[in-house]
């Protein structure tokens, strides 16, 4: 039972890291609120606790209407992208699969571009992105199913590639029709987690469902790892498991994309790092990816909004800039013989 | 054809004859004409989990995730006993442990699959099939890529397990002499059809092998079992 203990320990460590990063995200910011006061103000919100934080109403507003939802949204988006990436990797038995593999990014990119170019109204962007992401995956899945018999994964990946190219082509065409909106489309693509409470509330139900479904399928993804034929001979409905996990992972991706744009790198790097540190089993890779992805994006957002304060860097730039060297470091530290 | 419980059927035939396909069809993995009955019941009408408790299957080249440990791999055989979203019980772990003990794999329990030799891998695959506690074992070329000694060890082990547990064994085997020495019944497939079946001495005959394998062979008998020798054609 030493491994069971190791997993509990790893989960505990991940929770501590996440809480630490969230604390940092809450205490540090461009507005220069005193960390002590922020701490008191937060404690003041706990039930049965009443402390005078000394923050002005404006400062309270900054904390509770900007910083708190921002940290929570960054954490949620990071966790969703990372667990979705892990889910895709399990379904496709390929550590290089990422949440955008099946056309979610291209679908969302197209609908968002359409909304910005045609209506000029940013309010509809989250809904459009969500619908586009779901639509892109649906298109790829439908195409993969008609093109390949027997439910193999290779056809599905190829269908995703085809759908992505096709939708991206349309998006580029639409974009060219109205070049003056290029900047807005581009800044959406680079990612932002400053959507506040409304967006957090909007995606919370989808996030919850997708995370619960994926966590519940950890053991079954482990069985799928030995191949479809064997999994089927073990009494598993391989196609059904794959479909459930794909649906859940796509829902998670769509939720994240809806409120944050196309943040790269999180969905592929976090599960990979987790696998290096905690082993192959999806029972531990999925929950650790959720926690690790959340912590990673909270930190990335903190960097994005403080390095050039009061200006903000696009969070997608930070994830790649911070993430890539970190990834290389982990690869080197856990170096081993490829089999 | 029928295979009595506790018997060993070896499916032989030239490359591409449909040996692996037949095994997959028996497992219900492929759509097929005709019927495969186990104890009078059609396998295609069984629920997957039910079938998994009846028939264990190991493909010719099983996918062995290199980081997965031997114990984790072996316990996958318990999958047909675990409800969809549940987890392994202490009983599942006990069964797995005793199977690993039996196959002398206890010392390897925590070793990653990527660090095993060919013979060890084959035993691990067998362990996974045994934890399934299915009365029927379907093994596709269990001796692939093993040297002479390991081929013999795996088949001896399989025969011992078959006799001890009363398992019914169906294997494809490309080595005809091995098939003749271990199996009670042979089924010769050729171009997707059953060309001959029966006890080894009736199937492993020079005329049949010459016709279906397009090979020059000589058949001798050792302890009443046929042994096949490849003979180089003269004057070429």
From TrEMBL, chain A:
One of its GO terms (cellular component) is plasma membrane. Signal peptide: none annotated. One of its GO terms (molecular function) is transmembrane transporter activity. InterPro entries: ABC_BtuC-like, ABC_transptr_permease_BtuC. The chain crosses the membrane at residues 71-88, 100-118, 124-144, 156-177, 197-216, 243-268, 280-303, 315-334. CDD domains: TM_ABC_iron-siderophores_like. Gene3D superfamilies: ABC transporter involved in vitamin B12 uptake, BtuC. Keywords: Cell membrane, Membrane, Transmembrane, Transmembrane helix, Transport. It is found in: Cell membrane. Its main location: membrane. It is a multi-pass membrane protein. Belongs to the binding-protein-dependent transport system permease family. FecCD subfamily. PANTHER family: ABC TRANSPORTER PERMEASE PROTEIN MJ0876-RELATED, FERRIC ENTEROBACTIN TRANSPORT SYSTEM PERMEASE PROTEIN. This is ABC transporter permease. The lineage of its organism: Bacteria, Bacillati, Actinomycetota, Actinomycetes, Streptosporangiales.
TrEMBL record, chain B:
It comes from the Bacteria. Gene3D superfamilies: P-loop containing nucleotide triphosphate hydrolases. It holds the Pfam family ABC_tran. Keywords: ATP-binding, Nucleotide-binding, Translocase, Transport. The keyword Plastid does not apply. GO terms for molecular function: ATP binding; ATP hydrolysis activity. PROSITE patterns: ABC_TRANSPORTER_1 (PS00211), ABC_TRANSPORTER_2 (PS50893). SUPFAM superfamilies: P-loop containing nucleoside triphosphate hydrolases (SSF52540). CDD domains: ABC_Iron-Siderophores_B12_Hemin. Residues 1-216 form the ABC transporter domain. Transmembrane segments: none annotated. This is Iron ABC transporter ATP-binding protein. It comes from Acrocarpospora macrocephala.
């Amino acid at each position: 039972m030493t491994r069971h203990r190791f997993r509990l320990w790893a989960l505990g460590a991940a929770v501590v890291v996440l809480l630490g990063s969230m604390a940092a995200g809450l205490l540090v910011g461009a507005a220069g609120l005193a960390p002590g006061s922020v701490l008191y103000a937060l404690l003041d919100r706990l039930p049965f606790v009443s402390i005078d934080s000394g923050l002005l109403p404006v400062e309270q507003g900054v904390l509770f209407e900007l910083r708190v939802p921002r940290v929570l949204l960054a954490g949620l988006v990071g966790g969703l992208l990372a667990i979705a990436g892990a889910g895709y990797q399990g379904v496709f038995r390929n550590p290089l699969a990422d949440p955008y593999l099946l056309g979610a990014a291209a679908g969302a990119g197209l609908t968002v571009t359409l909304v910005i170019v045609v209506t000029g109204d940013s309010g509809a962007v989250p809904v459009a992105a969500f619908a586009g992401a779901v639509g892109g995956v649906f298109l790829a899945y439908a195409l993969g199913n008609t093109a390949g018999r027997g439910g193999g994964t290779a056809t599905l990946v190829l269908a995703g590639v085809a759908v992505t190219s096709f939708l991206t082509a349309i998006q580029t065409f639409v974009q060219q029709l109205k070049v003056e909106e290029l900047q807005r489309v581009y800044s959406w693509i680079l990612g932002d987690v400053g959507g506040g409470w409304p967006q957090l509330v909007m995606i919370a139900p989808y996030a919850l469902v997708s995370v619960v479904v994926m966590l519940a399928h950890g053991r079954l993804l482990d069985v799928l790892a030995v191949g479809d034929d064997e999994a089927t001979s073990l009494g598993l409905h391989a196609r059904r498991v794959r479909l459930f996990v794909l649906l859940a992972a796509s829902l998670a991706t769509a939720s994240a994309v809806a409120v944050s744009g196309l943040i790269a790198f999180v969905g592929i790097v976090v599960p990979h790092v987790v696998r290096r540190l905690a082993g192959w089993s999806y029972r531990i890779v999925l929950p650790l990816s959720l926690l690790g992805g959340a912590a990673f994006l909270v930190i990335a957002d903190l960097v994005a909004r403080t390095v050039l304060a009061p200006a903000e860097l696009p969070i997608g730039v930070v994830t790649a800039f911070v993430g890539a060297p970190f990834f290389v470091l982990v690869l080197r530290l856990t170096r081993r013989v490829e089999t | 054809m029928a295979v009595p419980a506790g018997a060993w059927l070896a499916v032989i035939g030239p490359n591409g004859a449909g040996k692996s396909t037949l095994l997959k069809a028996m497992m219900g993995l492929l759509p097929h004409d005709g019927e495969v009955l186990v104890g009078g019941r059609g396998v295609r009408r069984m629920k997957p989990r039910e079938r998994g408790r009846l028939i264990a299957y190991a493909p010719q080249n099983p996918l062995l995730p290199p980081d997965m440990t031997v114990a984790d791999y072996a316990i996958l055989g318990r999958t047909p006993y675990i409800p969809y979203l549940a987890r392994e019980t202490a009983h599942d772990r006990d069964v797995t442990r005793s199977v690993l003990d039996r196959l002398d794999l206890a010392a390897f329990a925590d070793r990653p699959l990527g660090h095993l030799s060919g013979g060890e891998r084959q035993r691990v695959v067998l362990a996974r099939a045994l934890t399934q506690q299915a009365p029927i074992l379907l093994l596709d070329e269990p001796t692939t890529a093993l040297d002479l000694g390991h081929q013999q060890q795996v088949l001896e082990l399989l025969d011992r397990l078959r006799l001890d547990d009363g398992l019914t064994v169906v294997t494809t085997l490309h080595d005809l002499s091995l098939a003749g020495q271990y199996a009670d019944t042979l089924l010769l497939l050729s171009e997707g059809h059953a060309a001959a079946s029966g006890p080894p001495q009736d199937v492993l005959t020079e005329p049949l092998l010459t016709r279906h394998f397009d090979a020059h062979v000589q058949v001798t008998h050792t302890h009443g079992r046929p042994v096949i020798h490849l003979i180089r054609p003269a004057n070429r």
